Amino acid sequence: MKKIVIAGRNDSGKSTIVGELYRGLKAKEYQPLAVGSGIQDEKPYLHKGIDVTYLTVAVPEPGMDVVSDVERVIRSHVNQIQEKNRLIQHARRALEELNKVRSVLELGNLSQRDIPDISTLPDVVLIEAVGINDGYKSAECRNLADILVSVIPAGIKGEIIMEQGSILLDEADIIVVTKIDETPRDVSNTTIKLLQRIYRHKPIIPAVATQGIHMELVLEEVVKRLNEPVFLLDNAQPQAKVVISKEKGTV
């Protein structure tokens, strides 16, 4: 399964983007598994319309590597779905056998209405990187992601964007600028222009995730990368980092 990591500052609106991408991918006939990470429960994700069957939270155990812990949680949750499906299938067969006996005894059949349908297995994973990234410098998030979506609030200081070693910006596949509705227009424009100037070849998408504004553009970029292996092959190669002269503010 391809892993889409939504990473960035904790005040950037990542969980809302996870919810929007979950619904968008579902509409395009994918079945995402949503994974939260860090000290956080499932309630915020449920409020964003994510089916509890396809939702889990990875809380790193003491001494555990973050990436391996998230991957362990993914495997465990998929196994749980498979086991539940097996139990449902066994229950249906058992009820069919019971109804054969009841039919012979003229007792009438029992309905299978109360037995749930089996669940589709997830084919893509959405991971919100909460509590596992150090600003925009987390190598773990890049290592975990097949597709890395880095989220930046529009009001972020330019100095943070221009810091050296910001892997989550330098190696992002998609950059989403959020909270443009809560930020003065001149500040938002400055942030977007700075990002466009530094990362000329990346999709940089301003969005109001809570209202779904421009989220279809984010979804389009994600689906493009899911469907075209060339994107994943390209992103597997080390990307050249942009060197910025802080004295002159030039690229």
Mean pLDDT: 83
Tell me the total number of β-strands. Answer: 7
Low-confidence stretches: 235-251
The end-to-end span amounts to 37 Å
What is the radius of gyration? Answer: 22 Å
Q: Beta-sheet strand percentage?
A: 5-15%
Annotated CATH topology: Rossmann fold
Helix content: 40-55%
At the fourth CATH level, what is the homologous superfamily? P-loop containing nucleotide triphosphate hydrolases
CATH architecture: 3-Layer(aba) Sandwich
CATH class categorisation: Alpha Beta
Please count the helical segments: 9
Number of domains: 1
Alpha-beta content class:
alpha/beta
Dominant shape: elongated
Task: State the order of secondary-structure elements, H for helix, E for strand.
Answer: EHEHEHEHEHHEHEHH
Sheet with the most strands? 7 strands, parallel
Sheet with most strands: strand arrangement = 3-2-4-1-5-6-7
